[in-house]
Amino acid sequence: MRRGLLPRSRSAALKAARSLVVLLFVAIVLTACGSPLVRVAKALPFVRGPAARSPRDLAPGHRFRASSSPCIASPAIFRAGAKAAVAIGCWDGYFYLLDAELNDLTGWPKFSPGGYFSSPAVADLDGDGQDEIVVGSEAGKLQAWSADGRDSPGFPVDLGYHIWAGPMVMPGPRIAIGDRGRMWVFDGLGKAAPGWPQAMQGWPDATAAYAPGLLALTSLTPGDTSRGWLYAWDETGRVESGFPIDLALDTDSSPALADLDGNGQTWVIFGDDGGYLHVIGRDGRERAGFPARTRGPTPDRPTPTPAPPGGNPYSIEASPAVADLDGDGHLEIVAGSWDGSLYVWDDRGATKPGWPLRVADQIISSAALVDLDADGRPDIVAGSKDGSLYGWTPEGKPLPGFPYRLGAPVFSSPWVGDLDDDGRADIVVGANNGIHLLHDVGPLGLAAWPTFHQNAQRRGVAPGSQSSLTNEGAP
């Protein structure tokens, strides 16, 4: 997909979320000075606006906090004392830590020019038994805060360029995050770990995945539709044999890791802007049956949102979610597409019966896989640019109460769990109009993939695979 001239342009859908007034102003400045747009955009001052408004109820069980700019990042749940809190950043310039009714906790929100696209991770960085929040900012800083909003020792770390990639926390703790032309691993005090950073091509708009001995990340070239890469390193920073892999088109999709055969072999799973779902082995080779491709527009169902110049209506920007949905002992792969469909593939690249399902617009939101109907199997929850949050059974039937109409495009990936300790499922998700909290959407069962990149540390490993820590960091 073409990134255009702005390095932070993820898709036409996300570009549309920016203020039209700001775009017009940039165009005027560009015309006046003749400078490349990217340099003009970086030189413009960010005007500090208001934080999100006070929360209110849109309907019974539907709590909402409006923001002046989109909330595209995916939320993390953070334990602030005995209770769970919602951690999420928005493009209004603020990073929020909110209670179970979406009220600000003391010491929050935190302001940064340009705001936050990066999805936060949660982990104990300094060994004091209390978790910290880690996130990248549009201003190019890797931030880490304690529950009261204080900077964690050694942070922030200035990486010098827009950060859209989310941080991922490995054991140690060590924080992995991609930067323009570099892959970093930091220790819990913000110092580069031995062997890092490593040079890489492109700029990652994705979160790295981790299993013991393996670190995987995708990257893209801003402004170029035909350059992307998949990297794999060991934990010392050595590039794995067969990597990096050049991609015909670029990719925003954060990779997942899974042992698809139960034999200890880890596969790297991700989508690209050509609409291909790739499953790559540690040797750099594609798994039999892959890549699988989305169906794209059809004569009776054209692309919901026209693609930008150089864009591809087949594109998979959503990060795959992986779990055994039907209880047959095999993992399924779930991802949405620009064609407005949600796909479920088996481990051989075939679409499962009843899938894909088409909605009214793009699905860039990554799915959560959690049992919400007490049948012991994970159900599927994902947002769409059409302004709805959808829920389906493994067979593709709508879950009771779904879809929820949120009133604005949903690019954020939902968190599904028990926020208020009542034993029932709640959902937190960002949208272009603010932050939404849905209380008591159903009974809470098996949480196979309850959040973006599977757990609070964002390691992206499927349940049953090596280093799968489904419940780590969950309240």
Strand content: 25-35%
Instruction: Supply Rg.
Output: 20 Å
Protein structure class:
mainly beta
- Give the integer mean of the pLDDT values: 87
Spans of at least 5 consecutive residues with low confidence: 1-47, 467-475
Main beta sheet, described? 5 strands, antiparallel
Helix amount, in percent?
A: under 10%
- The shape, in one word, is globular
Strand order of the largest sheet: 1-2-33-32-31
Individual helix count: 3
- The count of β-strands is 34
Distance between the termini: 37 Å
Brief account:
This protein is mainly β and 475 residues long.
What is the topology?
Elements: H1 12-17, H2 20-33, H3 37-43, E1 56-59, E2 62-66, E3 76-80, E4 83-89, E5 94-98, E6 110-111, E7 121-123, E8 132-136, E9 141-145, E10 157-158, E11 168-170, E12 174-179, E13 182-187, E14 198-199, E15 209-211, E16 214-220, E17 228-233, E18 245-247, E19 256-258, E20 267-271, E21 276-280, E22 292-293, E23 321-323, E24 332-336, E25 341-345, E26 357-358, E27 368-370, E28 379-383, E29 388-392, E30 404-405, E31 415-417, E32 424-431, E33 434-443, E34 447-449
Antiparallel strand pairs: 1-2, 2-33, 3-4, 4-5, 5-6, 7-8, 8-9, 9-10, 11-12, 12-13, 13-14, 15-16, 16-17, 17-18, 19-20, 20-21, 21-22, 23-24, 24-25, 25-26, 27-28, 27-34, 28-29, 29-30, 31-32, 32-33
